[in-house]
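As the next step, I selected for study one protein, both as residues and as discrete backbone shape codes, as given directly below:
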Amino acid sequence: MNWDDTTDTDAAGERLVGASADGEDQAVEAALRPKDLGEFIGQEKVREQLDLVLRAARARGATADHVLLSGAPGLGKTTLSMIIAAEMGAPIRITSGPAIQHAGDLAAILSSLQEGEVLFLDEIHRMSRPAEEMLYMAMEDFRVDVIVGKGPGATAIPLELPPFTLVGATTRAGLLPPPLRDRFGFTAHMEFYGPAELERVIHRSAGLLDVEIDTAGAAEIAGRSRGTPRIANRLLRRVRDYAQVKADGRITQEIAAAALAVYEVDARGLDRLDRGVLEALLKLFGGGPVGLSTLAVAVGEERETVEEVAEPFLVREGLLARTPRGRVATPAAWAHLGLTPPRSQSSGNGQQDLFGA
């Protein structure tokens, strides 16, 4: 969810508007995390559908169906997994795909589960293939075959498992093989939050953190949170610190705007890296098209950083487009930076590259 300097990164080197969670974010999230579906803000359709799944399971006295949650980081997948366990009155075991590199790793976890327990498997798309194949049988038949020995003398010993609920989370649902995806009884995609929903998140978090904030202050933070509750909570904490040091501790629109200007998060949620990419694209290359490697060199970043960290949000915001000829700035990008596009773009030549691709 989730101060000494004026950069857009924290002490761990993570971006202030990055959606990944470091140790500090995880600790704060634990304190702010809603405990049941009634407290969970946003994702209305997912909450309604999940509520029906869990109520039906409780009425039958059975474990809930396996659940797959997909969506960008910071939207509440881990929170929902904990809510599923709480609603079912069951313990929860948390692990991740990268931590399961061998089938034996998964067998050790599955064999120690209690009946009805919820197993939350984050980044499930990054699990090793042998473990993935073992998971098929575990999900469907609540059984795994443990291989003893090697080569021709190896034997498979069947191990019965107690009924459990697997909650898988992924940011890249397309990487899941169909046999695994089909074994989930309920699949949900987490959407980005709207400004009104983020304002509710911010007001709730401010109450838990004992921070006084007015409606305009919450709206200012929400507008810069990139549709992500984790980022909204992180920005709230930074603005809280600024308000305590520079003002009377109360967050208003003016205080929020001043604080986020210090941290270089602009009114649309762009940070130093995002603006650097746009400024290079507009000022050095006339809005494009320009190749990704050239653009990365111009901003002094690795190609992967530009492609995987900056571009997704710029594309989602309609500020940048990927075309067969390279990256192209949109009219909205010129307007956001207060620049005038070259005559070639304003007359339509650039637009053909952008919208004709």
Residues 229-246 form the longest helix (18 residues). The mean pLDDT is 84. The chain is about 45% helix and 10% strand.
